[in-house]
Design a protein that fits this description.
single chain, 275 residues
């Protein structure tokens, strides 16, 4: 994603916070809490959801380690959403993890971060490894999105193909799964995780116009997609993207209101206790 925390803060879909709030409320009630639980938040972004939505639902003595791959996001969260029970840390979950994380966490949460990860088998193997036996996980991930189709089409175009390599590394595997819930259940079980509640949720997020939607599009665009595009051509690139989004499912109403549509994968599960 674009590591501009303020841009992400300003244009993240407001209804996403509603999905996070509802999911956290549902899943934390299902969880078994210990007084000394340590909670891992993977991909905390600018920290707002961690501080305002997750922390109030964690038991009062639990602590949260909020991680993100981008230092800009972590610094923003530490400055704007601090709390004595939250530690913000720069950590890409798909890079080398601290050895002391093995079996450390009682709970793992993630909101709208797994859709930046291509290798779900490795991702959920790592989640298994950092959870305590009997530890629980909860996440929301964008499963399918018109933007993913835009990435692929524009990367295949004659005009932009030389600048964008391995575009599929910015598209989650769920975009190509026929039965997303069943495919996820099978994968989780292969990683020795127990999926308990798995559902697909259709979501619509309105923006006042295409300009506002494209600001959001830019804020979540995987950074590698534009990294090799010359600065003086980036505005043209985003304009070309804007011409494709309606083709792939973004709705523009008669008054100009632009509706961002996606399907969300919402999951609660656990690492089984050792036998």
């Amino acid at each position: 994603m674009n590591p501009d925390a303020q841009l992400f803060e300003d244009f993240k879909p407001r209804r996403n916070y509603g999905w996070i709030e509802a999911t956290v409320a549902e899943h934390t009630e299902l969880m078994s809490w210990s007084p000394d639980d340590i909670v891992l938040d993977i991909g905390c972004g600018q920290g707002r959801a961690t501080r305002e939505l997750l922390l109030p639902k964690c038991k009062k003595n639990s602590k949260i380690l909020a991680t993100d791959a981008f230092a800009e996001m972590v610094e923003y969260g530490d400055k704007n959403y601090p709390h004595e029970r939250i530690e913000y840390k720069v950590q890409d979950f798909m890079d080398d993890l601290p050895t002391e994380w093995k079996g450390k966490f009682g709970k793992v949460f993630s909101f709208f971060a797994f859709n930046y990860m291509r290798d779900f088998k490795e991702l959920f193997t790592r989640i298994h490894d950092v959870l305590q036996p009997g530890g629980e996980f909860s996440f929301i991930s964008v499963a399918t999105d018109p933007a993913f189709k835009v990435y692929r089409e524009i990367a295949a175009s004659e005009k932009w193909s030389s600048y964008i390599k391995d575009v599929d590394s910015g598209v989650p595997p769920t975009q190509d799964w026929d039965d997303i819930c069943e495919e996820f259940k099978k994968l989780a079980e292969q990683c020795n995780l127990e999926p308990i509640r798995v559902r697909l949720q259709y979501s619509e997020n309105p923006y006042p116009d295409m300009k506002a939607y494209m600001a959001f599009f830019q804020s979540v665009l995987p950074s590698f997609i534009m990294s090799d595009i010359p600065v003086d051509m980036q505005e043209e690139f985003l304009d070309d993207c804007s011409k494709l989004v309606t083709k792939h499912g973004i709705k523009v109403m008669s008054d100009g209101q632009t509706i961002y549509v996606s399907n969300l994968l919402i999951v609660y599960g656990r690492r089984p206790k050792d036998k």
